[in-house]
Design a protein that fits this description.
By secondary structure, the protein is α+β, with helices and mostly antiparallel strands. It is built from 13 helices and 28 strands. The strands form 7 sheets. It has a 4-stranded antiparallel sheet, with no helix packed on it. The chain has a 4-stranded antiparallel sheet with strand order 2-3-4-5, with no helix packed on it. A hairpin with a 2-residue loop joins β2 and β3. α1 packs antiparallel against α13. The two termini are 13 Å apart. Its main location: secreted.
């Protein structure tokens, strides 16, 4: 028994030492926490369903075609800007198509004066077209119904791709190689440099040009001086280059028969292979939000998750005949130049809020919020309202019987039948209709407060301030006690009244709780109520007035006070350890 007691005493002593050491470490960091110019980390406990880009394939639904446009030519590439798709249609030139309603595209205009439009790049109302034997076409498309050719550069080769940045056009020419042109004067492009050979695709970033070369693989140039580029790298180890794209230090290179290869080019003189996919020939590639969109000609499109650069993962194949060329992604919609099948428009199925409705369908069809699981806050997800229950995802009470749709589902009644409703006292109707005048937002607020619905309460609008008395009256008469979600001393209704966070006890992160700030008169929404450069909490701790800008801590005095505070903790901790040690030793003896 003595040995057991000794072990327990030693264990307790060790725990106390660690605990007191933690206090000491906290005190050593106290000044940096209190200074206005320091970095303060908020311990956030707000729950949210918002993700600004799909993080995994589980946030994607199956792609669906929205619409198409067949113009009679062979669609090879597409660029989309401000609701207009600019489609390179080979021998038919450049077509401008209105895609503001992606389910019903409308042709606006076209431009063709020979050549073979292969790629298109649009910037500031000007379309730059890699036009085969006609070189680079420069077209004013500010009026898409009546495009006007401004200028042209014919290098005598076969222009396959174009990239424009800061008034410089980089043209991948299969005959002449990389052509660099000054296009600041759109009516008279000037050749700056021509070199390399068999260039098919080009991408430029931070003064470095990456070129896909047929027969020679990948070439990399330093083009900070566009009149005299320096070749940094050339190798055909990655196959016959068809196209490439650059994003965040990685080149995504596609080759004939060899699929997709990811290359780390942080050192452009020595690319390092990271990973890839062997899915045969890929003829075009572009990257957006960690997803690679790969045109595979007769084999359609492959959608590849490349967030893990060492292990890309194919998410889907889209293959409905045609000949997939270039593509463009905008607001979750994929535009595909699909050869003789023209322009195809696909909803890619992004689902940021995991409600089983794509973001595109929420915006275009249902008018719901793609970043909120439950747009109207009635307790049912948008997807379940539309796909399962047939209720209105934008109305909390679809059948107008004064019961929320979610409450009716949980009660076993029909949310679409006003004659089928939960059995509740008559005063529920009286209070809602007479006191709140049927205001849906207030009804929802009562419901949220009653059930402690943190998701809704955390996003509640501060325009409810004027209705607090009515809300509390209704809650009181229903016998509902308002909770204090963040345990800061203000109940949730008081938080609504003051505009403070319902789920964070210190809304302005000044080391004073919201309730304490209300009590002493400081602003719980302003970390420095008197704008003197010191956090309210810092002033309260040092004894200065947080409401008087002329009274603030003196630097020397402040440091002395904090030093004294730290010294007290230090010596107190050491003294506590000594006393506890003596007690345990005496007990052991």
């Amino acid at each position: 028994m003595k040995n057991y007691n000794r072990r327990e005493n030693k264990k307790f002593l060790r725990m106390m030492i660690v605990f007191l050491a933690g206090i000491l470490i906290f005190s050593m960091n106290l000044p940096s926490i209190m200074k206005k110019d320091s970095v303060v980390v908020q311990q956030e406990n707000v729950k949210t369903n918002i993700n600004f880009a799909p993080q995994s394939s589980s946030q994607w639904l199956d792609p669906e075609i929205l619409g198409d446009f067949i113009g009679g030519g062979s669609s090879i590439d597409v660029f989309v800007f401000d609701g207009i798709a600019y489609v390179a249609e080979g021998v038919n030139g450049l077509a401008m198509i209105d895609v503001t309603d992606p389910t019903s595209p409308v042709k606006l205009g076209f431009h063709d004066d020979g050549g073979t439009a292969r790629r298109v790049y649009v910037s500031d109302g000007i379309a730059y077209v890699a036009d085969g034997s006609d070189g680079l076409e420069i077209i004013d498309v500010t009026n898409p119904t009546s495009p006007v050719e401004l200028g042209q550069y014919i290098g005598g080769g076969d222009a396959r791709d174009v990239f424009v940045s800061d008034g410089i056009a980089y043209v991948a020419d299969f005959t002449n190689g990389l052509e660099i042109l000054n296009v600041t004067n759109s009516t008279s492009p000037v050749e700056l440099w021509v070199g390399s050979w068999n260039a098919i695709g080009v991408s430029v970033s931070n003064g470095i040009a990456y070129v896909a070369v047929g027969g020679s693989g990948l070439q990399i140039f330093d083009v900070t001086d566009p009149t005299s580029p320096e070749e940094l790298y050339k190798d055909n180890v990655f196959g016959f280059g068809w196209d490439l794209d650059y994003s965040n230090g990685i080149v995504y290179f596609v080759a004939e028969h060899d699929g997709l290869t990811l290359l780390d080019v942080t050192d452009p003189t020595s690319p390092v292979e990271l990973g890839g996919t062997s899915i045969g020939t890929i003829m075009s590639i572009f990257i957006s939000d960690g997803i690679a969109y790969a045109g595979r000609g007769q084999n359609g499109w492959a959608i590849i998750d490349v967030k893990n650069s060492t292990s890309p993962k194919i998410l889907w194949d889209i293959n409905d005949a045609g000949s997939a060329g270039g593509g463009f992604i905008s607001d979750g919609i994929l535009y595909i130049a699909n050869g003789n099948l023209g322009l195809e428009i696909h909803d890619m199925g992004y689902d940021e809020d995991d409600d089983n409705l794509s973001d595109v369908s929420e915006l275009l069809t249902h008018d719901t919020d793609p970043e909120r699981l439950d747009s109207d806050g009635d307790g049912l997800s948008d997807g379940s309202e539309i796909l399962t229950h047939g209720t209105d995802p934008n109305r909390i009470d679809s059948d107008n019987d004064n019961f929320l749709d979610g409450y009716e589902i949980s009660s076993g009644t029909d949310p679409n039948d006003p004659l089928d409703y939960p059995d509740l006292p008559q005063e529920w109707y009286d209070l809602i209709n007479e006191r709140l005048e049927g205001n849906e937002t207030l009804i929802l607020t009562v419901y949220a407060l009653a059930l402690q619905n943190e998701e809704y309460l955390g996003n509640i609008n501060d325009t409810l301030t004027g209705d607090v008395d009515a809300l509390r009256e209704v809650l009181d008469e229903l016998g509902i006690t308002v909770g204090d979600t963040d345990y800061d001393g203000l109940d949730d209704l008081q938080e609504i009244e003051h505009g403070t966070s319902i789920v964070s006890s210190d809304t302005d992160i000044d080391n004073l709780s919201d309730a304490f700030e209300i009590k002493i008169g400081t602003d719980p929404l302003d970390d420095d109520s008197d704008d003197d450069g010191y956090y309210d909490g810092y002033e309260v701790m040092l004894g200065t007035d947080p409401l008087n800008a002329l009274e603030f801590p003196e630097t020397e005095g402040s440091e002395n006070k904090i030093s004294g505070y730290k010294s007290s903790i230090l010596f107190g901790s050491m003294g506590s350890i000594v006393i506890i040690s003596i007690i345990l030793i005496k007990k052991r003896n």
